[in-house]
């Protein structure tokens, strides 16, 4: 009989100790790559090692190399944390070890995903027939949504891309904001369209696509067309004018795909949904659950208002696959993976635990904390570069690139909080993203004070 209690018990103790220590843990890695190699490396093991000892050694070896992104004072990139229910469900997902590609391989995983999908569609206020794929993240969500778009616009032009490929196909033009996320470009590369198909659309000072510029581009664009809009610029949090974009694009026969990696969750909030007017008029959407829903990595979502296009782009049939005769949902029909982790369990648990009101509260609190951070820094002479509409704050110190980069490095090394640097409109900036369900006013005040201390230490 295998010893499950030993290694799992060790993992449980290590995990709960780590989570309990997050509020006071320095927010940043404390080991160099060389130190981590020394602690974890060595020659290939030749003999078995006790599993509990392996877990203890692994946990000890990585301890100082972890980036505590679950901390309420972690503001880097756009990382969320993980709620207790989501973590617990993710642990069970690993224990159950279900291959969630087919209903036949895991009826429970298929039904849970179907239920969670219906909840997501309702939360976001999208058409009830919207289909959902559980993918790794916004990269693959953008890929899948754009694959459905590619199918649909070529179908309308009389071309079957799944059968005939792209050689000889009518060229597709993709109209996307000049401040789009790079995952859009990368998805187009994966899809064989290449980045030269992109027509950059002028944006305003916050990174929002200009509807008038889109209208001009549409008037001179012929043939199959996809418009990529954005809800939540990765630097400023800015939201494209979705209603106008959808109206213009659909009048021209174009498909509208919305990259909304974190911003789509604002639709859950009664106070913030006004910023997303027209979101239900788009054709496909990409978002992450491992951001504002705060489930463990990896967990992305693609949603499509046209089930037939979604299915046509992703579906597969093979003699060795067992498709349910009663028509139960096979996840393989809605995402690009065959074998896949049952990501729906954690999403289901997070939504069940928080409910609509709890999710809205997390989103609204994060946005309020972003405003608090921006106001505190601005009151102390720091330049805030963006209109804080969601959870992103963009700041610059002394209108100086070197000083700004130095403050970012100093904050990361100091350890009270952690945020990343970026470049905005050709200038260095600090990007503060408030995405964690645990972040509160004390976290913001401690972090703002640390930023100002580091700024003073750099000589300004």
TrEMBL record:
<dbReference type="GO" id="GO:0004058">
    <property type="term" value="F:aromatic-L-amino-acid decarboxylase activity"/>
</dbReference>
<dbReference type="InterPro" id="IPR015422">
    <property type="entry name" value="PyrdxlP-dep_Trfase_small"/>
</dbReference>
<feature type="modified residue" description="N6-(pyridoxal phosphate)lysine">
    <location>
        <position position="291"/>
    </location>
</feature>
<keyword id="KW-0210">Decarboxylase</keyword>
<keyword id="KW-0663">Pyridoxal phosphate</keyword>
<dbReference type="InterPro" id="IPR015421">
    <property type="entry name" value="PyrdxlP-dep_Trfase_major"/>
</dbReference>
<dbReference type="GO" id="GO:0030170">
    <property type="term" value="F:pyridoxal phosphate binding"/>
</dbReference>
<dbReference type="InterPro" id="IPR010977">
    <property type="entry name" value="Aromatic_deC"/>
</dbReference>
<keyword id="KW-0456">Lyase</keyword>
<comment type="similarity">
    <text>Belongs to the group II decarboxylase family.</text>
</comment>
<dbReference type="Pfam" id="PF00282">
    <property type="entry name" value="Pyridoxal_deC"/>
</dbReference>
<dbReference type="GO" id="GO:0019752">
    <property type="term" value="P:carboxylic acid metabolic process"/>
</dbReference>
<dbReference type="InterPro" id="IPR015424">
    <property type="entry name" value="PyrdxlP-dep_Trfase"/>
</dbReference>
<dbReference type="InterPro" id="IPR002129">
    <property type="entry name" value="PyrdxlP-dep_de-COase"/>
</dbReference>
<protein>
    <submittedName>
        <fullName>Glutamate/tyrosine decarboxylase-like PLP-dependent enzyme</fullName>
    </submittedName>
</protein>
């Amino acid at each position: 009989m295998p010893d499950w209690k030993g290694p799992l018990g060790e993992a449980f103790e290590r995990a709960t100790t780590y989570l309990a220590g997050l509020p006071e843990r320095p927010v940043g890695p404390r080991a160099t790559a060389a130190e981590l190699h020394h602690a974890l490396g060595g020659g290939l093991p030749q003999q078995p090692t006790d599993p509990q000892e392996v877990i203890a050694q692994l946990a000890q070896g990585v301890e100082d190399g972890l980036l505590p992104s679950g901390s309420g004072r972690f503001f880097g990139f756009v990382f969320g944390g993980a709620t207790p229910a989501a973590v617990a469900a993710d642990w069970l997902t690993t224990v159950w070890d279900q291959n969630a590609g087919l209903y036949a391989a895991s009826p429970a995983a298929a039904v849970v995903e179907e239920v969670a999908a219906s909840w997501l569609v309702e939360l976001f206020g999208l058409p009830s027939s919207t289909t959902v794929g559980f993918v790794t993240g916004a990269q693959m969500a953008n890929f899948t949504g754009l694959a459905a778009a590619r199918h649909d616009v070529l179908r309308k032009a009389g071309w079957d891309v799944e059968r005939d490929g792209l050689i000889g196909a009518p060229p597709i033009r993709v109209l996307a904001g000049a401040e789009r996320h790079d995952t859009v470009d990368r998805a187009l590369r994966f899809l064989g369209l290449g980045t030269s198909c992109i027509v950059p659309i002028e944006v305003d000072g916050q990174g929002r696509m200009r509807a008038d510029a889109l209208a001009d581009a549409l008037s001179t664009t012929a043939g199959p067309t996809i418009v990529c809009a954005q809800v939540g610029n990765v630097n400023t949090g800015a939201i494209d004018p979705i209603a106008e974009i959808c109206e213009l694009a659909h009048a021209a026969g174009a498909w509208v795909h919305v990259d909304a990696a974190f911003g789509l969750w604002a639709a859950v909030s009664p106070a913030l949904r006004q910023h997303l007017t027209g979101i239900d008029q788009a054709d496909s959407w990409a978002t992450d659950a491992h951001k504002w829903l705060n489930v463990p990595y990896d967990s992305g979502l693609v949603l499509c208002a046209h089930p037939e296009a979604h299915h046509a782009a992703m579906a597969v049939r093979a003699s060795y696959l067992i498709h349910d005769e009663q028509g139960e949902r096979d996840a393989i029909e809605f995402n690009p993976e065959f074998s896949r982790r049952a990501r729906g369990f954690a999403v289901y648990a997070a939504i069940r635990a928080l409910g609509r009101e709890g999710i809205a509260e997390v989103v609204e609190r994060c946005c309020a904390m972003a405003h608090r951070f921006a106001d505190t820094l601005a009151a102390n002479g720091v330049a805030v570069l963006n209109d804080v509409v969601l959870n992103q704050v963009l700041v610059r110190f002394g209108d100086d690139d070197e000083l700004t980069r130095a403050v970012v490095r100093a904050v990361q090394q100091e350890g009270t909080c952690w945020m990343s640097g970026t470049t905005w409109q050709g200038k260095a900036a600090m990007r503060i993203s408030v995405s964690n369900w645990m972040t509160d006013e004390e976290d913001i005040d401690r972090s703002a004070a640390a930023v100002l201390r580091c700024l003073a230490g750099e000589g300004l």
